[in-house]
Write a structure and sequence with these properties.
Blueprint lengths: L36 E5 L14 E8 L8 H14 L1 H6 L7 E2 L2 E8 L9 E11 L2 E10 L4 E10 L1 E2 L2
Antiparallel strand pairs: 1-2, 2-5, 3-8, 4-7, 5-6, 6-7
Length: 162
């Protein structure tokens, strides 16, 4: 194939998927979805910390009970799920008081490379703007070899919780 070929480099790791998170706490007790993933955060502060921080979330993820799939179409759903799901956890870091939820209004995903032989994926998600009850997020999914598998963005609606 002719044309330009380049790729943004994977963010520098402060942790890798061979290291266990410092806290055994998960969101699974509150939301059953999280029982389907094993997460190893790069930022080792727990989600229970109430201090605001930069709205960027980076976790190594392995899906449970099956980590990857032979069928590329089915396996691509791993990146789609991560890009659809991790917008709010990233945005939440800016205001971790639990007063809001933010369901997705839409998600767009672009697939670049397939890595169905790679159990662990790095989700690198950031919230670039939040205003007037709307949140804009962008994310990338990387494989263990540093390959960019997918990029995506989403628009969330921020609502009072409860």
């Amino acid at each position: 194939m002719t044309g330009n070929t380049w790729s943004r480099r994977q963010p520098q790791r402060r942790s890798n998927s061979n290291q266990a998170p410092s806290s055994g706490r998960t969101w699974g007790a509150r939301y059953r979805f999280w029982e389907n993933v094993e997460a190893r955060p790069i930022d080792q502060r727990t989600t229970w910390d109430k201090e605001p921080r930069t709205p960027i979330r980076r976790d190594w993820i392995r899906f449970q009970p099956q980590a990857c799939f032979d069928d590329l179409f089915v396996d691509a759903a791993r990146a789609l799920i991560l890009l659809d799901t991790y917008g709010w956890p990233a945005a939440w870091y800016a205001h971790p008081d639990g007063r809001y939820i933010a369901p997705n209004l839409d998600t767009s995903v672009w697939f670049h490379n397939f890595s169905n032989d790679c159990e662990w994926l790095l989700i690198d998600h950031e919230c670039s703007i939040a205003a007037a009850g709307l949140i804009g997020v962008n994310g990338r999914v990387w494989d263990r070899n540093g390959g960019l598998g997918a990029t995506g963005s989403a628009h969330l609606c921020c609502l009072p919780a409860g």
